[in-house]
Amino acid sequence: MTEIGLLQIFFYLLILLALVKPLGWYIASVYEGKAWGLHHLGAPLEKFIYRISGIKPKQEMNWKRYLSAMLVFNLFGLLAVYLIQRLQAYLPLNPQHLSTPESAILSAVIFNALIIIFLIPLALRGVKYHHVEAARLLRSNVLIYGLGGLIVPFIGIKLIDLLLSGLGLA
């Protein structure tokens, strides 16, 4: 690994560490239903999104609405990954200059339908890495921009919250 690569990792971890506490406070305040910091700036946007989505914040959701919300949310994530792949020709960090419809569809489907499903078992078991061209393409184009890596933790947090609420522990 080059020195620049190590510096990038260092700065990424430094930024991540700096954001831990403020984001933790924010997430805690959201789950407690309290206004926090810049809430007055985001509230109009939140109300607008609720209005166009048909969300009633005071009304509890049943399991069918939660399931449909998760599926729609993941569908938008799939669409976002596809669009990012289609825009690769105009985005930075595209050394292979990939932007064909086939590579966009393949990357989006593989990432959302196959890779995310197998991430946890592979992480627990461990995998011996073999360098292949397809893995490099996937890593450089989807994992850098792939929204699944950013979205999945939020979905996991919400599912844990639902589980705890369902068990009466929240």
UniProtKB/TrEMBL annotation:
Pfam families associated with the record: KdpA
Keyword terms of this UniProt record: Hydrolase, Membrane, Transmembrane, Transmembrane helix
GO cellular component: membrane
EC identifiers of the protein: 3.6.3.12
Presence of keyword Membrane: yes
InterPro entries attached to this UniProt entry: KdpA, P-type_ATPase_bsu_IA
PANTHER family xrefs: POTASSIUM-TRANSPORTING ATPASE ATP-BINDING SUBUNIT
Protein name as annotated: Potassium translocating ATPase, subunit A
Lineage summary: Bacteria, Pseudomonadati, Pseudomonadota, Gammaproteobacteria, Legionellales
